Amino acid sequence: MTSLADLHLHSDCSDGVLSPRGLVAHAARLGVTQLALTDHDTVAGCAEAASACAAAGIRFVSGCELSSSWRGQAIHVIGVGLDTGSAPLRAQFAAVAGHRRERLHEIGIRLQRRGRLPGADIVAAVAAAAAVPTRTHVARELVARGHADSVQHAIERWLGRGAPGHVPVEWPELARSAAAIRAAGGWPVLAHPHRYRLSGGALRQLVEAFVAAGGAALEVSVGGMARGDLDRIATLARRHGLAASCGSDFHDPGIPWNPPGRFAKLPADLEPLSARL
After folding, report:
1. Confidence (pTM)
2. Which sign does the torsion angle of CA 200, 204, 209, 210 carry?
3. What is the 8-class DSSP label of residue 213?
4. For residue 208, which phi and psi values (nearest 5 degrees)?
5. Are 107 and 73 in contact (CB under 8 A)?
6. What is the mean pLDDT of each run of 10 residues along the chain (277 residues)?
7. How far apart are CA 172 and CA 180, in angstroms?
8. CA 118, 139, 79: angle at the middle one, nearest 5?
């Protein structure tokens, strides 16, 4: 049987829609044979996902996606192959949780003052329902209350850059995130590097900083990625001797363009990170 590894998936333990067990069942139907649960800043779903994978005959990899900063820009670092009980990793989660609480509170204030919306009620509902509250959760609540037609519309209208509820946040530094992953016995992966709003030179500098911090791999192939972007990131992986990771970045079965397991094949000369796991 052909192996199909998806090392970037989200459940409802962060901003995904499916439970960890439901996510595994969905991935199994689509032919995934190895998967990593990489929820934002938590490993809360890993035990359930591991149990479901064992029952489905899927190789499970424990993971997370750490919110990080580099030169003031939000950057995501995936960790895979983790000891989920690691004290440094848990400390990183706690630090990020503090940032999330502060950001959510400020979003509520700005939606109330600038958007003339019931901001306090909106963020209170999100805080009560989400263990790891994200901007996506706020967007979904705005849709549910009739203030937007879709999550994307809610982000553009209310939460994105220049919108009434936009709140920039300074996450822990990239090097700190990579160190926490390494301390947990995992492999740090720079998530979806093609999506960051960086010039070619700045992206090269980001990858250099990631390597210096102990980075192991780039996410070379991501669901919905253009071929030109894949080739560009593959070149960076070659230049720096990094392994290559693949992931759908799946959140919601209602979004058709990135189901589990759907992404372009890696170039044959790159080492797949999945082979190390």
Report:
1. 0.94
2. positive
3. T
4. -60, -40
5. no
6. 90 97 98 98 98 98 98 96 98 94 96 96 96 95 97 96 93 97 98 96 98 98 96 98 98 94 96 97
7. 11
8. 135
